[in-house]
Specification:
Length: about 400
């Protein structure tokens, strides 16, 4: 695992590699989890579920844990806060900060805290402080911290005031049902973001929880998720899925390994109906063909939706490389109009933004005056405002 993380650049410093080599990851996962799965670089170990079968606690994939720790630039003697516990990540951080440092890990779930405390003791990391409480306010008296790592998906950030001067905050921030892990560094009255990374985490619980709308289609095989907007009509959306669809093709192609993550951000910038569609790969719902397994963009209305699909456009017989063409499928009474809108967004992205760097992110206090960006938007939250601004 560590060799792979070093090779791909997720681990860059020897002290981080040494910590990952020392902490036994298998102790912190369910007993039935295989060693192969425990040490797979991209494998998430889910440890707790709600009554709908959704994960509420997990041990994040090693690649993401390593990247977040490297982004936080944690070093010996640092005071570090982790929001969202489990034990393993806190043990790795504790190994890096050493006996002169201090690690606090907080979680709202007593089961998670008991488990983390027990496993940290078993592995010799009794110096880690496990705090039970709502992270919205439970750690307000424990700062300041040189680094704060948030390991749950959060819609807002009430922790900026806990950063020590020069500290770094690594935050999986949700905006319009999209999540980016962003490293924020304080500059004056604002936090400037660096290195936004596509990721997914279990959602924050408690006072700071944010609920997106979700509609389950085809008996749960397909789900639509949108942040805000008019209330979704799940029955109407199911009827839309089963009816005839609109089909448009864009002429825009990508190869099998090419990232198109900025496409989602462009649609977020332009369209309040932006959301995601997900198809369970284990289901038999073969007539839904998403262009990406995770975070596939869609435009979603109460009774209709359109989403990004793809088909093979070219295959090189010698190299075996394949290029795929983006298309749009629209469903429901507004499906054709939504398909036209999504089609236009894809063409604009391809023409104007595909080959530029993505937008920058800055986090401001909720009462700050922010000029409207030339290209971008401001997401206003309870404690903060997130400015997403495209380079012009």
């Amino acid at each position: 695992m560590v060799a792979a993380l070093l090779e791909q650049g997720s681990i860059r410093r020897p002290e981080v590699a040494a910590a990952f080599l020392k902490v036994p990851r298998e102790v912190f996962g369910p007993e039935a989890t295989s060693m192969k799965a425990v040490y797979a670089v991209y494998e998430v170990i889910r440890t707790r579920f709600n009554d709908r079968g959704r994960a509420t606690s997990s041990v994040s994939a090693p690649w993401l844990q390593a990247q977040m720790i490297e982004a936080a630039r944690i070093g010996p003697g640092d005071r570090v806060l982790e929001i969202g516990s489990g034990g393993y990540n806190a043990a790795v951080i504790s190994e890096i900060v050493g006996p002169e440092g201090h690690v606090v890990t907080v979680d709202i779930d007593p089961w998670v805290c008991e488990r983390a405390t027990r496993f940290l003791a078993e592995t010799g990391y009794t110096q880690v402080q496990v705090a039970l409480g709502d992270a919205e306010h439970a750690v307000n008296d424990l700062g300041p911290f040189d680094a704060i790592l948030v390991t749950v998906g959060v819609w807002d950030c009430p922790w900026a005031g806990l950063l020590a001067p020069g500290g770094r905050l690594v935050l999986p921030l949700i905006f319009k049902s999209t999540t980016r892990s962003i490293t924020f560094v304080q500059e004056g009255d604002r936090l400037v973001g660096h290195d936004p990374t596509v990721c997914g985490f279990v959602a924050l619980q408690g006072e700071g929880a944010h609920r997106s709308q979700e509609a389950e289609l085809a008996g749960g095989a397909v789900s639509l998720t949108i942040d805000g907007g008019a209330e979704l009509d799940e029955a109407a959306l199911n009827r839309a899925l089963e009816a005839d669809r609109t089909e448009l093709w864009t002429g825009v192609t990508v190869d099998s390994h090419e990232s198109f993550e900025t496409l989602n951000l462009w649609i977020v910038t332009e369209d309040d109906l932006f959301g995601h569609i997900y198809r369970d790969p284990a289901s038999e719902c073969a007539f839904v063909r998403t262009a990406a397994r995770w975070f596939c963009p869609a435009l979603i209305a109460p009774d209709s939706f359109a989403y990004l699909t793809a088909r093979e456009a070219h295959r090189d017989d010698q190299s075996g490389k394949v290029r795929h063409e983006f298309g749009i499928y629209g469903h429901g009474p507004q499906g054709a109009d939504l398909a036209d809108r999504l089609h236009a967004h894809v063409l604009t992205w391809d023409r104007d933004w595909r080959h530029r760097s993505g937008p920058g992110f800055t986090l401001y206090p909720v009462d700050a005056a922010i000029p409207e960006p030339a290209v971008g938007r401001v997401f206003r939250k309870r404690h903060t405002q997130l400015l997403m601004q495209w380079p012009t």
